[in-house]
Specification:
The strands form 3 sheets. Strands 3, 4, 5, 6, 7, 14 and 15 form a 7-stranded mixed β-sheet that branches. Helices cover 31% and strands 25% of the residues. Helix 3 crosses helix 4. The chain is built from 10 helices and 15 strands. Strand 12, helix 8 and strand 13 form a beta-alpha-beta unit. It is of the alpha/beta class. The chain is globular. The model has no long low-confidence stretch (mean pLDDT 95). The chain has 2 domains: 140 residues, Alpha-Beta Complex (Quinone Oxidoreductase, Chain A, domain 1), CATH 3.90.180; 142 residues, 3-Layer(aba) Sandwich (Rossmann fold), CATH 3.40.50.
């Protein structure tokens, strides 16, 4: 079977396309999918370096998202622990979603890890309510670009995006952000508050870490909520003292999508809702590139260098 395989941890150079990878075999509660597209996420670059939340073992076929067709004819989009960068992948029925006919392959994959994460951050962890001011960091990325729009659909009064380049900030504004800020500002706290009319903010969706997290916590209004769902910058934020949270009646919480599958009914409804919103034009999936699997090294290099926008996918047939 043709697939990407990693036999040592390291940079993009360790991802290799092979034609002799053993075929996966479905077990109880699993289904074999003929893969049409494989999703690429920042987490894949961490797994490649063995720096993800959970440790990886070698040899490894990376990739946590696929869309394709099962033997019984069902079109499925599914998350998997690994094995997605391949012509065929085994997925658990518990992590698979049926894809409506009017949803294309790229969008079907984009609504998995990134779409469901954005949806949960907006509706549960961040608890965005009508009128809230919402900061979305990395707003041109896969999660961020959807979160900007979902926050607007949830009734946010003001959406403030951050992105490292002007073209990315322009993209965020085109998706519905009211203002866009460079996260490299010396005083990011002041910049976020200025973008909110001089007032602290209600909700922050944050996946960078380091000073961005620190200065975002400082920008929270009373009863403000910061949802932390990643550390793309590779630097841990300063620990937050509970007493400081009490002084501002603030909440800092973490989110990892894997735990949301304990509420599978909620995720099924969320996926179906977003699929309808994409089909109706209410929600736009930003396409970062539909690449042949043969270019996987280049895709990983661009993603690790934070030079991408939107959803990246691989076509395992090319």
């Amino acid at each position: 079977m043709r697939a990407v395989q990693i036999t040592e941890f390291g940079g993009p150079e360790v991802v290799v396309v092979r034609d002799d990878v053993p075929e996966p075999v479905a077990g109880p509660g699993e289904v074999l999918v003929e893969v049409a597209r494989s999703g690429v996420n920042f987490a894949d670059t961490l797994m490649r370096e063995n720096g993800y939340i959970t440790a990886a073992t070698l040899p490894l076929v990376p990739g946590g998202e696929v869309v394709g067709t099962a033997a019984d004819g069902r079109r499925l989009a599914a998350m998997t622990e690994r094995g997605g960068y391949a012509e065929r992948a085994v997925v658990s029925e518990g992590y698979a979603f049926e894809v409506p006919d009017d949803l294309d392959d790229v969008s079907a994959v984009a609504l998995l890890a990134q779409g469901l994460t954005a949806w949960w951050l907006v509706n549960h962890t961040g608890r965005v309510r009508p009128g809230d001011s919402v900061v979305v960091h990395a707003a041109a990325g896969g999660v961020g670009s959807l979160a900007v729009q979902l926050a607007r659909l949830a009734g946010a009064g003001r959406v403030i995006a951050t992105a490292s380049a002007q073209d990315k900030r322009d993209l965020a504004v085109s998706l519905g952000a009211d203002a866009a800020v460079d996260p490299a500002e010396d005083d990011l706290t002041a910049a976020l508050c200025a973008a909110n009319g001089g007032k602290p903010v209600d909700v922050v969706l944050e996946m960078t870490g380091g000073r961005v997290t620190d200065q975002s916590v400082a920008a929270l209004a009373p009863f403000g909520r910061l949802a932390f769902y990643g550390m793309a910058g590779g630097v841990a934020p300063t620990p937050v003292e509970p007493r400081e949270l009490q002084r501002g009646s603030a909440t800092v919480s973490g989110f990892w999508l894997i735990h949301a599958f304990a509420r599978r009914d909620v995720l099924t409804a969320a996926y179906a809702e977003m699929a309808k919103q994409v089909a109706s034009g209410q929600l736009r999936v930003v396409r970062g590139g539909d690449f042949p699997m043969s270019q996987v090294r280049e895709v990983h290099a661009e993603l690790a260098g934070r030079r991408t926008t939107g959803k990246l996918v691989l076509d395992p047939r090319r």
